[in-house]
Structures are given as C-alpha cells and as structure tokens.
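Morning run. Coffee first, then this:
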Amino acid sequence: MLRTLLRRLIKLLFWLTALSVLLVAVFRWVPPPITGLMVERKVESWASGEPIDLQRSWRPWQTLPDDLKMAVIAAEDQKFADHWGFDIAAIRAAFAHNERGGSLRGASTLSQQVAKNLFLWSGRSWIRKGLEVWFTGWIELLWPKQRILEVYLNSVEWGDGIFGAQAAAQHHFGIGASYLSTTQASQLAAVLPNPREWNAGRPGPHVRQRASWIRQQMRQLGGSHYLNQLRIAEKR
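And here it is:
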C-alpha cells in the first residue's frame, strides 16, 4: 500500500509539474484570462462579505505607453534587462536589512512578481517562495522580456479590484492607458509598493516625491532608448 501511495504521489507531482510548465508556455502567447491574485481578492471578498468588482482589460504591448513601461522598471526593477529573473545583489541586501530588524524589505524582480501574481498567492512562506522560484525560472526561459513586462502591466494590482494598466488609467485618471502622461505613469508606478492604500490619482506628499524620483530614474535609464535596447536584445 505504501508503494502504491508513493507511485501515485510521484505521478501527481509529475502531472502538476507538467501542467505548470504547459501553462507558462501557453501564456507566452495567450493573454491570461485571470490571475491568482484576482482569485485571492475574490475569495477574500466572499469571506468578509464585502463585494468587490474586479476590473481588468487586456492591452497588447504596442498600445501600452513607453512612459509606463519605463516607470515600473525604474520603480521596481532597474536591472530588468540584465538579470535572469533574480537580482542576487538586491536579495543579499534585503536579507542583511531584514536581519537587522525593522520593516521587512523585499527584493522581487518584475519576473518574480509576474510569477507570484499570475500563478500563486500573496503572503510569506517558504513553500510559496519555492514555487515562485520555479515559475520565475520557466517564465525567464520561455518568455522574452517584452512579454514579461506586458503581462506584468496587464496583471498588477492598482487598487481594490483594479488590475492592469487600462483599468488603472480609467479608474485613477478617467482615460485609457495609451493616453497616460509621464507624470501620471510615474504616479501609477509610485503606488505599487502599497496600491490598496496609496492613490495614484490623488497622491499624497510621499507618492508625489516618489513619483518625482521615478521620473528622474527614467531619464537616467535612457527612457525609450532603454526599451529599444531591450527589443534588440530579444532579437539576438
């Protein structure tokens, strides 16, 4: 009986592994219809009895503004073009900071955030982190950087029930994502550490200061030239 259970467990792990890789491969081309974080928010609303209206409208890479692409790179992952899913230096710095105590600091790249938001759940546990590493590795292997950024911008949370750039632009500024100004794009990027508490459309002093820093970083990274280099690297 023990051997039978072990064989079944191995088969289950094999099919789960194959399914996870297949999903990553499919989403290389197919827009994900829903994300793990969206499911989590819906379950939370059912548990609390407070209804939530999930808003999300997919926009392809070509219609997403360069300023927003650069703003999230400047704010969240300035080594995005160079790493293979993990920023080792940032991870070491975060460990050192967290060991000293105080507020916890993360070191997740855009690729890791896509893995977590799309396939997993929020919260801190070694199991979730291990799965995040697994999915991040396959995403980096099977997707070009442009696709990673495209899925990120269409899946990231920008408020209660607000997912993706199009829904965020409409909710916070009353316009489509393609019409976002540089300032508006930087304000959206500025609230990403805490999108359910900070408001991109009505930014407080901290968000305005952070948005100004993001715009400076966008210029230093090279703006659209950075994205052109990203496209050239993908073609190679």
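The mean pLDDT is 90. Good start to the day.
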